[in-house]
Description:
The chain is α/β, with parallel strands linked by helices. The protein has eight helices and five strands. It has a five-stranded parallel β-sheet with strand order 3-2-1-4-5, with helices on both faces.
Amino acid sequence: MTNTALPTSSADQENDIQSNKLHKSQNAVVLLSGGLDSVTCLYWAKARYASVTAVSFDYGQRHNSELVAAKAIAENAGVNHRIIDIDIAQLGGSSLTDYSMIVPDGDTDKFPDKKRDEIDNDAIPNTYVPARNTIFLSYALAVAEVTDSNHIVIGVSSVDYSGYPDCRPEYIAAFQHMANLATKAGVTGHHLSIQTPLQQLSKAETIELGLSFGVDYGQTISCYQADANGLACGSCDSCALRRQGFAQAGVADPTHYQP
Protein backbone atom coordinates (compact mmCIF):
# COMPACT_ATOMS: atom_id res chain seq x y z
CA MET A 1 0.00 0.00 0.00
CA THR A 2 1.31 3.43 -0.90
CA ASN A 3 1.57 5.86 2.00
CA THR A 4 -0.12 9.13 1.15
CA ALA A 5 0.54 12.22 3.24
CA LEU A 6 -2.56 13.72 4.77
CA PRO A 7 -3.44 17.11 3.33
CA THR A 8 -2.61 20.05 5.55
CA SER A 9 -5.76 21.52 7.05
CA SER A 10 -6.66 25.15 6.45
CA ALA A 11 -6.28 25.72 10.20
CA ASP A 12 -2.72 24.34 10.13
CA GLN A 13 -1.88 26.47 7.11
CA GLU A 14 -3.24 29.57 8.85
CA ASN A 15 -1.21 28.77 11.97
CA ASP A 16 1.94 28.44 9.86
CA ILE A 17 1.25 31.77 8.16
CA GLN A 18 0.68 33.51 11.49
CA SER A 19 3.80 31.92 12.96
CA ASN A 20 5.91 33.10 10.02
CA LYS A 21 4.49 36.61 10.32
CA LEU A 22 5.30 36.63 14.04
CA HIS A 23 8.89 35.53 13.48
CA LYS A 24 9.38 38.07 10.71
CA SER A 25 8.50 40.80 13.21
CA GLN A 26 11.00 39.55 15.80
CA ASN A 27 14.76 39.78 16.25
CA ALA A 28 17.39 37.16 17.04
CA VAL A 29 20.92 36.86 18.35
CA VAL A 30 23.07 34.12 16.79
CA LEU A 31 26.20 32.69 18.39
CA LEU A 32 28.68 32.73 15.50
CA SER A 33 32.00 30.92 15.89
CA GLY A 34 32.84 30.89 12.19
CA GLY A 35 32.35 27.13 11.99
CA LEU A 36 30.00 24.98 9.96
CA ASP A 37 27.21 24.68 12.52
CA SER A 38 27.03 28.31 13.61
CA VAL A 39 27.06 29.62 10.03
CA THR A 40 24.19 27.29 9.17
CA CYS A 41 22.32 28.75 12.14
CA LEU A 42 23.09 32.28 10.98
CA TYR A 43 21.46 31.73 7.60
CA TRP A 44 18.57 29.81 9.17
CA ALA A 45 17.92 32.81 11.42
CA LYS A 46 18.27 35.30 8.56
CA ALA A 47 15.49 33.51 6.70
CA ARG A 48 13.29 33.48 9.79
CA TYR A 49 13.65 36.75 11.70
CA ALA A 50 13.37 40.47 10.97
CA SER A 51 16.82 41.37 12.26
CA VAL A 52 19.81 39.26 13.28
CA THR A 53 22.80 40.16 15.43
CA ALA A 54 25.74 37.76 15.30
CA VAL A 55 27.93 37.44 18.41
CA SER A 56 31.42 35.93 18.43
CA PHE A 57 33.91 35.55 21.26
CA ASP A 58 37.63 36.10 21.52
CA TYR A 59 38.01 33.92 24.59
CA GLY A 60 41.64 32.83 24.43
CA GLN A 61 41.13 29.98 21.98
CA ARG A 62 44.10 28.39 20.23
CA HIS A 63 43.72 30.42 17.05
CA ASN A 64 41.83 33.45 15.80
CA SER A 65 41.29 32.13 12.28
CA GLU A 66 37.71 31.28 13.19
CA LEU A 67 37.12 34.89 14.26
CA VAL A 68 38.51 36.16 10.96
CA ALA A 69 36.12 33.78 9.21
CA ALA A 70 33.20 34.83 11.41
CA LYS A 71 33.79 38.50 10.62
CA ALA A 72 33.89 37.87 6.87
CA ILE A 73 30.81 35.63 7.00
CA ALA A 74 28.80 38.19 8.98
CA GLU A 75 29.76 40.91 6.50
CA ASN A 76 28.76 38.74 3.55
CA ALA A 77 25.47 37.89 5.25
CA GLY A 78 24.78 41.57 5.91
CA VAL A 79 24.14 41.20 9.64
CA ASN A 80 25.30 43.18 12.65
CA HIS A 81 28.31 41.52 14.26
CA ARG A 82 29.81 41.89 17.71
CA ILE A 83 33.07 40.30 18.86
CA ILE A 84 33.24 40.15 22.64
CA ASP A 85 36.56 39.79 24.45
CA ILE A 86 36.54 37.44 27.44
CA ASP A 87 39.60 35.64 28.74
CA ILE A 88 38.46 32.23 29.92
CA ALA A 89 41.83 30.76 28.92
CA GLN A 90 43.12 31.84 32.33
CA LEU A 91 40.83 29.23 33.87
CA GLY A 92 42.50 26.37 32.00
CA GLY A 93 41.01 22.90 31.89
CA SER A 94 40.74 22.57 28.10
CA SER A 95 43.13 21.80 25.28
CA LEU A 96 41.41 24.56 23.28
CA THR A 97 42.72 27.20 25.68
CA ASP A 98 45.72 25.54 27.35
CA TYR A 99 48.73 25.00 25.08
CA SER A 100 50.25 22.54 27.54
CA MET A 101 47.45 20.10 26.70
CA ILE A 102 47.36 18.08 23.48
CA VAL A 103 44.32 18.24 21.21
CA PRO A 104 43.34 14.59 20.67
CA ASP A 105 42.86 13.05 17.26
CA GLY A 106 39.26 12.66 16.20
CA ASP A 107 37.43 9.36 16.26
CA THR A 108 33.86 9.44 14.97
CA ASP A 109 33.31 5.85 16.13
CA LYS A 110 34.29 6.38 19.76
CA PHE A 111 30.71 6.06 21.07
CA PRO A 112 29.35 3.18 18.95
CA ASP A 113 27.23 1.53 21.63
CA LYS A 114 26.09 4.46 23.75
CA LYS A 115 23.30 6.94 23.54
CA ARG A 116 24.58 10.46 23.99
CA ASP A 117 22.88 10.90 27.36
CA GLU A 118 24.75 7.84 28.63
CA ILE A 119 28.23 9.18 27.95
CA ASP A 120 30.22 9.32 31.18
CA ASN A 121 32.73 11.94 32.28
CA ASP A 122 35.70 9.86 31.16
CA ALA A 123 34.37 9.91 27.59
CA ILE A 124 34.19 13.71 27.38
CA PRO A 125 37.31 14.84 25.47
CA ASN A 126 39.68 17.48 26.79
CA THR A 127 38.48 19.85 24.06
CA TYR A 128 35.49 20.54 26.30
CA VAL A 129 35.83 24.10 27.61
CA PRO A 130 34.39 24.29 31.15
CA ALA A 131 31.02 26.09 31.17
CA ARG A 132 31.70 27.68 27.76
CA ASN A 133 28.15 27.52 26.42
CA THR A 134 26.81 28.86 29.71
CA ILE A 135 29.22 31.80 29.50
CA PHE A 136 28.48 32.43 25.82
CA LEU A 137 24.72 32.17 26.24
CA SER A 138 24.83 34.55 29.20
CA TYR A 139 26.54 37.21 27.09
CA ALA A 140 24.13 36.50 24.23
CA LEU A 141 21.26 36.94 26.68
CA ALA A 142 22.50 40.42 27.54
CA VAL A 143 22.86 41.26 23.85
CA ALA A 144 19.32 39.99 23.26
CA GLU A 145 17.97 42.38 25.87
CA VAL A 146 19.75 45.45 24.49
CA THR A 147 18.82 44.60 20.88
CA ASP A 148 15.20 43.82 21.73
CA SER A 149 15.62 40.25 20.50
CA ASN A 150 13.19 37.47 21.34
CA HIS A 151 15.42 34.58 20.34
CA ILE A 152 18.97 33.31 20.81
CA VAL A 153 20.15 30.79 18.22
CA ILE A 154 22.94 28.33 19.01
CA GLY A 155 24.27 25.51 16.84
CA VAL A 156 24.35 22.67 19.35
CA SER A 157 23.55 19.11 18.30
CA SER A 158 23.02 15.90 20.22
CA VAL A 159 23.60 13.69 17.17
CA ASP A 160 27.06 14.27 15.65
CA TYR A 161 28.98 15.97 18.44
CA SER A 162 31.85 15.38 20.86
CA GLY A 163 29.82 14.49 23.95
CA TYR A 164 29.86 17.92 25.60
CA PRO A 165 27.25 18.14 28.40
CA ASP A 166 26.25 21.70 27.48
CA CYS A 167 24.99 20.60 24.06
CA ARG A 168 22.13 18.49 25.41
CA PRO A 169 18.44 19.46 25.05
CA GLU A 170 17.86 19.36 28.81
CA TYR A 171 20.65 21.89 29.32
CA ILE A 172 19.17 24.23 26.71
CA ALA A 173 15.71 23.94 28.31
CA ALA A 174 17.16 24.71 31.73
CA PHE A 175 19.01 27.78 30.45
CA GLN A 176 15.90 29.08 28.72
CA HIS A 177 13.94 28.70 31.95
CA MET A 178 16.63 30.60 33.85
CA ALA A 179 16.75 33.33 31.18
CA ASN A 180 13.08 34.09 31.60
CA LEU A 181 13.45 34.28 35.37
CA ALA A 182 16.58 36.42 35.39
CA THR A 183 15.94 39.17 32.83
CA LYS A 184 13.82 42.28 32.61
CA ALA A 185 12.46 41.02 29.30
CA GLY A 186 11.44 37.71 30.81
CA VAL A 187 9.68 39.07 33.88
CA THR A 188 7.83 41.76 31.90
CA GLY A 189 6.21 39.24 29.60
CA HIS A 190 8.64 39.33 26.66
CA HIS A 191 9.45 35.63 26.47
CA LEU A 192 12.99 34.73 25.43
CA SER A 193 13.61 31.46 23.63
CA ILE A 194 16.78 29.51 22.91
CA GLN A 195 16.53 28.12 19.38
CA THR A 196 18.53 25.01 18.46
CA PRO A 197 17.68 24.24 14.82
CA LEU A 198 20.45 21.62 14.55
CA GLN A 199 19.66 19.76 17.78
CA GLN A 200 18.39 16.59 16.12
CA LEU A 201 20.31 16.86 12.85
CA SER A 202 23.34 14.85 11.82
CA LYS A 203 26.30 16.74 10.39
CA ALA A 204 25.23 15.64 6.90
CA GLU A 205 21.71 16.96 7.47
CA THR A 206 23.14 20.22 8.80
CA ILE A 207 25.19 20.61 5.63
CA GLU A 208 22.15 19.91 3.47
CA LEU A 209 20.17 22.53 5.42
CA GLY A 210 22.89 25.12 4.97
CA LEU A 211 23.22 24.44 1.27
CA SER A 212 19.49 25.06 0.90
CA PHE A 213 20.18 28.59 2.18
CA GLY A 214 23.18 29.02 -0.11
CA VAL A 215 25.86 28.74 2.59
CA ASP A 216 29.43 28.69 1.26
CA TYR A 217 31.08 26.19 3.60
CA GLY A 218 34.46 26.95 2.06
CA GLN A 219 34.43 30.14 4.15
CA THR A 220 33.91 28.31 7.44
CA ILE A 221 36.56 27.06 9.85
CA SER A 222 35.69 24.27 12.28
CA CYS A 223 39.17 22.98 13.14
CA TYR A 224 40.30 23.11 16.77
CA GLN A 225 43.88 23.86 15.73
CA ALA A 226 43.76 25.66 12.39
CA ASP A 227 46.90 27.55 11.47
CA ALA A 228 47.28 31.30 10.98
CA ASN A 229 46.06 30.96 7.40
CA GLY A 230 42.92 29.12 8.45
CA LEU A 231 44.11 25.75 7.17
CA ALA A 232 42.57 22.83 9.07
CA CYS A 233 44.66 20.13 10.74
CA GLY A 234 42.45 17.35 9.37
CA SER A 235 42.94 15.17 12.44
CA CYS A 236 41.04 16.66 15.39
CA ASP A 237 37.54 15.62 16.45
CA SER A 238 35.93 18.61 14.77
CA CYS A 239 37.71 17.91 11.47
CA ALA A 240 36.71 14.24 11.64
CA LEU A 241 33.03 15.03 12.18
CA ARG A 242 33.10 17.67 9.45
CA ARG A 243 34.77 15.38 6.91
CA GLN A 244 32.33 12.59 7.73
CA GLY A 245 29.40 14.97 7.31
CA PHE A 246 30.38 16.03 3.80
CA ALA A 247 31.01 12.41 2.82
CA GLN A 248 27.60 11.29 4.11
CA ALA A 249 25.89 14.24 2.42
CA GLY A 250 27.55 13.30 -0.87
CA VAL A 251 29.04 16.78 -1.14
CA ALA A 252 32.63 17.65 -1.99
CA ASP A 253 34.50 18.78 1.12
CA PRO A 254 35.50 22.45 0.59
CA THR A 255 37.71 22.52 3.69
CA HIS A 256 41.23 23.85 3.19
CA TYR A 257 43.62 21.45 4.93
CA GLN A 258 47.22 21.84 6.02
CA PRO A 259 49.70 20.02 3.74
